[in-house]
Amino acid sequence: VVSVGPKEAQEQIRSAMALGADRGILVETTDEIGALEVAKILKGVVEQEQPQLILLGKQAIDDDSNQVGQMLGALLGAGQGTFASVVTVNGDKVQVTREVDGGLQTVELNTPAIVTTDLRLNEPRYAALPNIMKARKKPLETKSPADYGVTAASKLKTVKVEPPAERKAGVQVKSVDELVEKLKNEAKVI
Fold first, then answer.
1. How many CB atoms are closer than 10 A to CB 45?
2. What is the pLDDT of residues 82-111, one digit of tens each?
3. Which of 56, 55, 54 is nearest to 66 (CA)?
4. Please, which of 122, 135, 176, 179 could form a disulfide with 17 given CB 3.0 to 4.6 Å?
5. What is the bridge-based pairing of β-strands 53-57 and 113-117?
């Protein structure tokens, strides 16, 4: 399991190890880094570790950008299946099924392959106390972005974050006739 972020990200790595991962790598940085920098770091990890299947979340919790998996695929020249709701591994092939507007789409990828996951991929489970205790003894390596030839400086800077403007409360109507009347006379949309 790999995470890129501050020292506190060890908690998520330990949780993943309690669920079955053998070891973890934390690429520690306190700098605000963008999706491209994360993808470059992960490229270094993949080249070093040589996994055949790279699983990533669909979107990051910080910027919700949905970019790292696709950028990693481009940097590695590897096939990718995005928004996976079903993943089937058969030898050196990976079938990824995802929901699209018209139904389901299944793609087949050669390994090494990158898969970004959707919520429907699995049912979340909880770690048992004995596994949580065992996870404390599993190896967790701490690296820096420089170990993978990446400078942690992002080309993007968050200037500010603000909530959307407050909206007025909606109006409930008791009948279709009243709704049509309000749409005609107040909203003037029909």
1. 18
2. 999 999 999 999 999 998 888 999 999 999
3. 56
4. 135
5. parallel
What CA dihedral angle connects 122, 69, 44 and 159, to 10 degrees? -120
> Taking the CA atoms of the chain, what radius of gyration do you get in angstroms?
22
- Please, which residues have CB within 8 angstroms of residue 24's CB and are 6 or more apart in sequence? 1, 2, 3, 10, 13, 14, 16, 17, 138, 139, 140, 141
Sheet holding 79-90, edge to edge: 53-57, 113-117, 79-90, 93-100, 103-110
Using one digit for the tens of pLDDT, what is the confidence trace for 31-51?
Answer: 888 889 999 999 999 999 999
- Give the pLDDT band of residue 65 (cuts 50, 70, 90): confident
Token look-up 């700098």 returns 31
Structural domains of the chain, ranges and CATH numbers in brackets: 2-83+114-158 (3.40.50.620)
Q: Could you give the percent of the chain with pLDDT greater than 90?
A: 68
